[in-house]
Design a protein that fits this description.
heterodimer; A: mainly alpha; 2 domains; two-stranded antiparallel ribbon; globular; B: 451 residues; alpha/beta; Rossmann fold; 7-stranded mixed sheet; 5-stranded parallel sheet; 43% helix
């Protein structure tokens, strides 16, 4: 009991330190600008939520982007109708996606395995087409839902918030949600979300979810009704997605249908598997890696590659640029694909398994060395 | 036992407090740093005393509009080269304050991004350019949805957006912004220019069927063309919305055969237009006779790149374009020559508008003597210029729309080369396509934004 509390604490402490110091370590990898850091936090939250369903119960949902989209649309509507304060937006965004998750989960969870995946994918595509064209009055179709000067904002009007002559920006009781303060807001929510997921992983509830993954039939024979557990896990993970979606709207008040496309659903699956499904930290790592690739590698071009490899002799530089060029710029998907294949083939446990292997290796080498050093020291003294 | 538990609880609380304190302590310097950063400067991304200044070119490198995007990027690179070293339209632009030594003596550099023709991705890469790379201006884009999304972002961020290819009325209509400028023409102008030609060629008794790209550009173009054709006395049989990047349009084309319509209006652009036109021709629409008249296809917005993609199917089809490389004025000739020398083929209208936009921004900075956006905006508003390929042109101050002549073109029956695909039917003068800025709602917003 005592040990588990302690380890929870240490994990949380390390996690908080890493998350809040992101603007510092981000500099090293060229990622220290608010927009990317916000994306790191938001997609990490999305992946954590997805992992509660996929990592624990093994149910692979291919339609989680629906909830992301629902969260975004709800949040933007809250900004339009009620207030530019982000609180109603994220609360209602989360709740609304919970409602959607209940409906979709109720229907999809009648099947398992590949059939469940197909069902969720079908629902997601349906939601996407609805948002894209059918529900244009609500979603503004391809153009995306945006704020406008003419929005009523009843709550703001009620509390006499001054109307600016430009478009208002989102705020948390006066604290602007763009730039670094937006990132810290997302980071705090990520930390809370991580803590909740940690609690779920280490609770009897989490254990039951894992039991569903290992053998649902046996569980049913022992008298457990697994449906409520599955449905609640599906809803929780849907609400995480909704929260992430509303945070996307908080940092950038615009919601587009492409957020709900199947590629977006596939992305979170990639993130989770790449980082390590069923682990606590894995999905976060996966989210950071994919977003980093998407934003940094896609912006590299030949000239920048030349400057990266400029320390080499000219002909070597040209060869390296020639080899790496197809993998950056608009070819970053290729790079991601290769990385994903390598991870799935050699590290089925994701990047986290790879990190574990590397630290083990280092421990072995260092441990070996330190005993040797100690021995030699002992000899000399 | 109880006591022990209490102690462990206390330490946990302690730990939590400590962790919260660590968090605050870690984040504090950044808050202060940021404040200090913002206070010292008057506007976002002020190049200050740096020797270089950065521009951001945000174009579609993947998706249905990738061809246009690639050509836009070529034009941007050429514009940067000319700004730094002189040449091209720098010699023909009137009035010009450009000296060919960069902007305000600073060498011009650029960064690029991929909009993927998605609002989210476009805003993401625009944010990267503004926050990480520190650009003073963003240009590009080949979709009105993207242009409007990025324009809104630029207004919030206080960075000027020189729109690339965007043809929707909304860009300078209901979604116009103080920080956004459009050189390209729009759907309203296309309608006004096309109307008289359609009347001459096809008469006043026609039944039209629209296929429309399902986003802001498609919607406004459909609206403007409908308005024009119905004023001629045409009837609109049906309008059908198709998703962007659909690829296969056969399911939308078969119903046309039995609809009783004798004109098909394709409100499509890029690869979408190439596919829908090719499939319409394959379905035999152009060989049909309906209501005793020859079936016609109209593509209101046209480009040479699309004509190249559609091959023989484009022959004889009417449309409008912002600019064509075969124009004989000095500005066009200088641009086509420089572009051809650099890349070996003539520029598209997308390339032209992006090139001109970059030069216009640079020129406005020179006129204002600063990069401070409100001053640059004031220099651009109401700016009259010539020698950039479209004849006398004016940036209207009320909605940031350029007013100029519009070309009505037709796919050439006997092209002389693989690039010589469009013949100019009529150069419609500015007076005939001009409209009042206040017919569209919307508000430009403030000059000053807090960065």
């Amino acid at each position: 009991m005592k040990i588990s509390i302690k380890s929870n604490l240490i994990i949380m402490l390390i996690f908080i330190t890493i998350v809040l110091s992101a603007p510092i370590w981000g500099k090293v990898i060229g990622a220290a600008y608010p927009d990317l850091l916000q994306k790191f936090a938001i997609f990490a939250l999305f992946a954590i939520g997805f992992n509660i369903l996929f990592g624990l119960t093994g149910y692979l949902s291919f339609g989680h982007a629906t909830f992301l989209g629902v969260g975004s649309y709800t949040a933007v509507w809250m900004f339009k109708l009620f207030s530019m304060n982000v609180l109603p937006a994220i609360i209602l965004g989360t709740l609304m996606s919970g409602v959607f998750a209940y409906i979709i989960g109720y229907l999809s969870l009648r099947r398992s395995g590949i059939y469940f995946s197909i069902l969720t994918l079908a629902f997601a595509q349906m939601a996407y087409s609805l948002a894209y064209s059918v529900l244009t009055p609500i979603t503004n179709g391809e153009t995306g839902l945006q704020l406008s000067q003419q929005d009523p904002r009843y709550l703001d009007a009620l509390f006499g918030v001054a109307v600016s002559d430009g478009l208002p920006s989102t705020n948390f009781f006066g604290l602007s949600m763009s730039g670094y303060s937006g990132f810290y807001f997302c980071a705090v929510i990520l930390i809370i979300g991580f803590y909740v997921s940690l609690k779920i992983f280490r609770s009897p509830y989490g254990l039951k979810l894992t039991a569903i993954k290992s053998n649902q039939k046996r569980m049913k024979y022992t008298g457990f009704n697994t449906r409520p557990y599955l449905l609640s896990a599906f809803m929780i993970s849907g609400m995480y997605a909704g929260l992430a979606g509303s945070l996307m709207a908080v940092t950038d008040p615009l919601a587009g249908a492409e957020r709900m496309q199947w590629t977006a659903s596939g992305e979170v699956v990639l993130m989770t598997i790449l980082g390590g499904a069923g682990t606590l930290i894995g999905p976060i790592l996966g989210a950071v890696i994919i977003k980093y690739f998407e934003n940094i590698f896609s912006a590299l071009n030949t000239a920048e590659l030349h400057s990266i490899f400029s320390f080499m002799p000219k002909f070597m530089e040209n060869i390296f640029v020639f080899i790496t060029n197809p993998f950056v710029g608009d070819g970053w998907h290729l790079m991601l694909g290769v990385l994903f294949m390598l991870v799935v083939i050699f590290l089925p446990g994701g990047v986290l398994e790879g990190l574990g292997k590397v630290t083990n290796l280092f421990k072995r080498i260092l441990g070996f060395k330190s005993t040797k050093q100690g021995a030699s020291k002992g000899e000399s003294s | 036992m109880d006591k022990k538990n209490n102690i462990s609880n206390l330490t946990r609380r302690g730990f939590l407090k400590a962790s919260a304190a660590t968090g605050v302590a870690l984040s504090a310097p950044l808050f202060f740093m940021q404040g200090a950063y913002a206070e010292g400067k008057k506007f976002r991304n002020d190049p200050g005393s740096a020797k270089t200044v950065k521009l951001g070119f945000n174009v579609p490198q993947t998706g249905a509009y990738a061809d246009e995007g690639a050509d836009e990027l070529r034009a941007f690179k050429l514009a940067v080269k000319h700004l730094n070293e002189g040449g091209g339209m720098l010699d023909t632009m009137k009035p010009s304050s450009l000296k060919g030594n960069g902007i305000l003596g600073k060498k011009v550099e650029y960064v690029t991004g991929d909009t993927q023709t998605k609002s989210d991705a476009a805003r993401g890469s625009a944010k990267r350019m503004i926050e990480k790379d520190g650009v003073v201006m963003i240009s590009g884009g080949s979709s009105s949805g993207v242009a409007i999304a990025v324009q809104g972002l630029c207004q919030e961020m206080g960075v000027i957006f020189m729109a690339g290819l965007t043809h929707s009325n909304d860009t300078t209509g209901k979604d116009k912004r103080r920080y956004g400028f459009r050189h390209f023409f729009n759907a309203k102008m296309t309608g006004s220019a096309l109307g008289p030609v359609l009347k001459d060629e096809m008469g006043t008794d026609r039944k039209a069927y629209h296929l429309t790209s399902d986003y802001t550009w498609g919607w406004t173009q459909e609206e403007s063309i409908k308005e024009t054709t119905e004023a001629l006395g045409w009837k609109t049989v049906k309008t059908v919305k198709t998703p962007v990047g659909a690829g296969d349009f056969s399911q939308y084309i078969t119903p046309i055969l039995n609809s009783g319509a004798d004109v098909l209006i394709l409100n499509h652009y890029g690869k979408d237009m190439i596919n829908s036109l090719t499939q319409s021709v394959q379905f035999g629409l152009r060989d049909k006779k309906v209501n005793g008249k020859k079936f016609e296809i109209i593509v209101p917005l046209f480009s040479r790149l699309m004509a190249q993609g559609a091959g023989d199917n484009i022959k004889g089809i009417l449309g409008t374009t912002n600019w064509n490389w075969a124009l004989e004025d000095d500005g066009s000739k200088a641009f086509v020559k420089a572009f051809g020398k650099e890349y070996g083929n003539p520029p598209s209208q997308a390339a032209h508008t992006c090139y001109v936009q970059t030069l216009l921004y640079a020129n406005a900075c020179e006129m204002a003597g600063t990069f401070y956006p409100p001053e640059v905006i004031k220099a651009l508003e109401g700016f009259k210029f010539d020698g950039m390929g479209n004849g006398p042109t004016e940036y209207r101050a009320e909605d940031h729309q350029c007013l100029k002549d519009v070309l009505v073109v037709r796919g050439k029956e006997k092209p002389k080369s693989q690039f010589d695909l469009l013949e100019i039917v009529k150069q419609v003068p500015r007076a005939e396509v001009e409209y009042k800025a206040d017919i569209f709602k919307g508000d430009l917003g403030p000059y000053e934004v807090k960065s």
